[in-house]
Amino acid sequence: MTRPAGALALVAALAGALVAVVLGFLTFGAQATVAPDGVPVAVAAPPEIAQRLAAHGGGQLAWTVATPAEARRLLADKKIYGVLELAPGPVATVVTSGAVNPAGTQVAQQALTGAATALAGAPKQEVLHPAGLAARVAPLAASALAWIGALVAGLALTQLAQRTGRPIGAGARLLQVTGAGVLITAVVAGFFALWDATLPLTADVLGFVFLAATAFAALQAGLLRLLGLRAMALLAPLYLVAPAVAGQVPELLNPAYRALLWSWTPFRFSTEGLRSLLQGVPDAPDVTTALWVLGALLAAGLLVALWPGRSARQEAEPHLADGVVEVGVH
After folding, report:
1. pLDDT digits over 73-91, tens only?
2. What is the pLDDT of residue 190?
């Protein structure tokens, strides 16, 4: 029985509203609710001054009192976003790092500059591992390009298999994953060279980009194998998480976004790990964490994508656009 046109129109309207809710949650909502909450910073100062600063900033800042060497070590490990050094003398120093997320760095720099100005006048600004505009943009851009490029590659393979009626075997999936990894790495390297010739295209940087691209491609290939084109309803919206959430630090996000999106998104691991490598800090803890996370995604994705299971005929059938399996008469 055919549904009335009015019912179909209502379903279409509800679908549009649902898409608007998802897009609003994943993009504009995260950006509209950004506010500092417990941004970690450090102060190296005499005890009486450090205690005064610890009460500065309300809940927006989380102060750590340390020696200059300890504070700079915390900054190198990306456990804080800035350091205020108030050594004996007329001028204070605000220390930040180009290897640290620029969103967190900007908030910390403004807050520390204001605190230093109130105590000792305008401070000196010292930047460790200085980063230009391209170096600040490149890590997140590479992660987003790796995800969308791998996604299009996986979708193209699925669509081509559907149109030709050919099954997608393990060899084809493995070739698509590795091929996408190689080509996307080349694309990212080309953009890096175009944006800023000083960006390092070393083996560790390119190897990391290749790992991220193949990990994303393997994860997507596994989901496409399990769900067919229905996986796009999950994979496509995730692309929106990259600029809206992964580019931020958790202390600036609303707690809901911090728990529901930032806590697990793979983009933040690839972005911050690559940032450290580009700024010449390969020993930063986030590089090791990113290698473990991306390696696990790659292994899990390949396991699902390449695990022998259904017959070749069954492998091809779920990719039909309308979900109908053709039955031939023999």
Report:
1. 999 999 999 999 987 666 8
2. 97
DSSP designation for 310: S
CA 223 to chain centre: 19
Q: Which two tokens stand for residue 237?
A: 């919206």
Is residue 181 within 8 Å of 213, Cβ to Cβ? Answer: yes
Give the DSSP H or E segment for 125: strand 124-128
Distance CA 140, CA 146 (A): 10
The predicted-structure confidence for 7-65, as pLDDT tens digits, reads as follows 778 888 888 888 788 777 777 777 778 888 889 999 988 877 777 776 665 678 888 88
Helix (H, G, I), strand (E, B) or coil at 173: helix
Q: Say how far apart CA 220 and CA 143 lie, in whole Å.
A: 14
* Token couple for 126: 């010292």
Contact in structure between 82 and 96 (CB atoms under 8 Å): yes
d(CA 214, CA 291): 12
d(CA 269, CA 278): 14
Q: How far apart (Å, rounded) are the C-alpha atoms in residues 1 and 96?
A: 67
Q: Which residues contact 300 (CB under 8 A, 6 or more apart)?
A: 218, 219, 222
